């Protein structure tokens, strides 16, 4: 082999791979992880990266990367929480901008209809319409809830119905009884414009769950809470 040929082999530079493309869209797996983080924060409220990672079954490092990306998009924010040992933890929470990922109940149309009903029928007329709607809900909910004998079964059936309607409902057992939770309000704008909707909702729950059950609202989205929650107990 000639010296020239030898030099050309030993002196040749290895081929380098192409640079990663910038601005590329997230992979499907990343999209699923980001959405899972958004859903977890909606269901469970503010959490640190470690708790999110444990719940989702992915690494804390991956969760932090997704959180910083979501923060850059204005979808999440964080606040420091002091811990007994070590540095304060970052508690991550959704911003109002993240509401677009969840059902909104066609807010603009609903608000327009409420205004039209007030003009056409007045405040008393609107109350009558809400009463009719409540009766229809009680009948529809009751048809499914009455199949259950236990209070736990009734609440789980109610949570299933409300989740189908976009409320992301859940039931938690407590020392006193149960906590019925709605993590999202798909008619929040309408409820803000018409207080009767929230009042009607409470009455519907009480009627649907039947006699011998007390239902009290403990958290209210319109009052600044991140969710609506109801304490449900049996009467003595």
If you had to describe this structure to a student in words, what would you say it looks like?
The radius of gyration is 26 Å and the shape is globular. Residues 1-24 have low confidence and may be disordered. It has two domains: 28-99, Winged helix-like DNA-binding domain superfamily/Winged helix DNA-binding domain (Arc Repressor Mutant, subunit A, Orthogonal Bundle); 107-234, Trafficking protein particle complex subunit 3 (Muramoyl-pentapeptide Carboxypeptidase, domain 2, 2-Layer Sandwich), CATH 3.30.1380.20. A four-stranded antiparallel β-sheet has the order 3-4-6-5, with helices on one face. The chain has helices at 3-10, 28-44, 49-56, 60-72, 107-145, 151-164, 188-193, 196-209, and strands at 76-81, 89-94, 169-173, 178-182, 213-219, 228-234. It is built from eight helices and six strands. By secondary structure, it is α+β, with helices and mostly antiparallel strands.
- Structurally, how many domains make up the residues? 2
User: What is the percentage of strand-forming residues?
Assistant: 15-25%
Main sheet makeup = 4 strands, antiparallel
Order of helices and strands: HHHHEEHHEEHHEE
CATH superfamily of the largest domain: Trafficking protein particle complex subunit 3
In DSSP terms, counting alpha (H) and pi (I) runs of 4 or more, how many helices?
A: 8
CATH class membership of the largest domain = Alpha Beta
Coarse shape: globular
How far apart are the first and last residues' alpha carbons, in Å?
101 Å
Please state the structural category. alpha+beta
């Amino acid at each position: 082999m000639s010296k020239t040929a030898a030099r050309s082999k030993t002196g040749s530079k290895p081929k380098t791979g192409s640079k990663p493309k910038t601005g590329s869209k997230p992979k499907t797996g990343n999209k699923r992880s980001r959405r899972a983080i958004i859903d977890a924060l909606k269901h469970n409220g503010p959490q640190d990266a470690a708790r999110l990672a444990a719940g989702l079954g992915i690494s804390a490092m991956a969760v932090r990367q997704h959180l910083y990306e979501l923060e850059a998009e204005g979808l999440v924010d964080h606040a420091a929480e002091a811990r007994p040992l070590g540095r304060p933890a970052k508690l991550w929470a959704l911003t109002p901008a993240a509401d677009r990922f969840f059902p909104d109940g066609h807010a603009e149309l609903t608000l327009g209809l409420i205004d039209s009903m007030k003009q056409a029928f007045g405040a008393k007329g609107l109350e009558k319409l809400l009463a009719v709607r409540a009766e229809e809900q009680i009948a529809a909910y009751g048809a499914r809830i009455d199949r259950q004998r236990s209070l736990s079964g009734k609440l789980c059936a109610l949570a299933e119905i409300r989740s189908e309607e976009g409320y992301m409902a859940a039931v938690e057992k407590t020392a006193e009884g149960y906590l019925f939770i709605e993590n999202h309000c798909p008619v929040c704008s309408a409820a803000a414009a018409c207080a009767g909707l929230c009042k009607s909702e409470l009455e519907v729950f009480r009627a649907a769950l039947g006699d011998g059950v007390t239902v009290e609202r403990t958290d209210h989205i319109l009052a600044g809470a991140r969710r609506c929650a109801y304490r449900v107990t049996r009467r003595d």
